[in-house]
Design goal:
Largest sheet: 2 strands, antiparallel
Order of helices and strands: EEHHEE
Number of helices: 2
Shape: globular
Helix content: 25-40%
Oligomer: single chain
Strand order of the largest sheet: 1-4
Length: 66
């Protein structure tokens, strides 16, 4: 796994799915670093969860391989 950054998107709304577990941003980032070896694995992991963005600031995750 390479790097992961979160970028604030002030006018976005994160989707919510009642059948998915919700993670906060810190937990989501840790999940990726602990379990994903590639960008594709990171994307697949994150798609399995709702992400809670604190302070009402929705973010995009940028993932890259090095």
């Amino acid at each position: 796994m390479g790097d992961l950054a979160s970028l604030a998107v002030p006018e976005a709304e994160a989707p919510y799915y009642s059948d998915k577990v919700t993670l906060n941003t810190t937990t989501a980032i840790r999940l990726v670093f602990d379990n994903a070896a590639t960008v594709e694995e990171a994307v697949d992991l994150l798609r399995q969860y709702n992400i809670y963005f604190s302070n009402g600031i929705v973010c995009h995750f940028v993932v890259c391989a090095v």
